[in-house]
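Hi everyone, sorry if this is the wrong subforum. Our group has a chain we'd like a structural model of before ordering constructs, and none of us has done structure prediction before. Sequence below.
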Amino acid sequence: MVALAKIGLNGWWRGAEAGWHEYLVRATLKAIVHIPDGFLSTPVWAVMDLTAAPAVGYAVRAAQRGFDDAKVPLLGVMGAFVFAAQMINFPVGIGTSGHLVGGALLAFTLGPAAAAVVMSAILAIQALVFQDGGILALGTNIFNMAIAGVLAGYLPYRLFGGGGGRRAAIFAGGALSVLTSALLALAELRFSGVRMPTAVLGVSLALFLVSALIEGAITLGVIRALEAIQPDFVRQPAAGGRHAVIAAGVAAVLLASGGVVIASTAPDGIERLAKQTGIESRAHSLITAPLKDYQAGFLGAGWLAQACAGLIGLGLVGGVCWIAVRKR
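Answer:
Right subforum, don't worry. Here is the predicted structure as tokens:
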């Protein structure tokens, strides 16, 4: 009986361990919102790559010209925070999830040029190191989120963010950033020959709208939290101490190392659309990334491997952002 009990306990433990591992993998896989390789036609991804490359180059030069060296820690920390936040999916309804994109948040705290550089760095690291998003589709994802998404998110704040409508402008910027990126992604898929029935397109648009509204609310909430720690943080982030920067850094570490525990495992909008349009099987990877699926394989599988991969990502994002904008 004792032997049988031990066998049963060992079996239960192995089952629980396997279930936890599956949960972690699903949670990280569902964090993929970027377009993978295989979804876009060659003309579409080629044109987008050729469009994104000079746009990022211009953003780098603009950020270097107008960036204050005192903001370098802020830039690295905010980039790390957005990277960590993108790992955590939340439910948006109908068995679908979404996550913070962060383009507008970066634009408000860093300015649009530096924000575009930081978001480009995040997307490149996700594709090359974590196999999150396509290599050939990298230009598309950068244009959608780091160029168009950042500019669209900054527009409301630029137009009416200086007066009594400041909170509304921040909320609108977060929402508009996601809507712009989502609509561009849908258009690129359509130009690539992906057939989208009216009902499927309608549901997708509704889910993206919900994600956009949540993005606006989270963006406003984060800004208000940072300004509660350090008043006037958005207008003068490098002045008045480092308390808000430290808070954002601590939040980034917590999200990267433990956020998988609360992450939704439901598919995101792009995944759901891929399943409904029958293009899910087209996704493929050109490389095997060292930290594929946000797992540090040298630590096996489980929470520790995921936490280690997330923390490595924070360091990479912070370092690349600092190198990109430092004045030569």
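For your construct planning: The longest helix spans residues 198-229. Residues 1-9, 11-32 have pLDDT under 50 and may be disordered.
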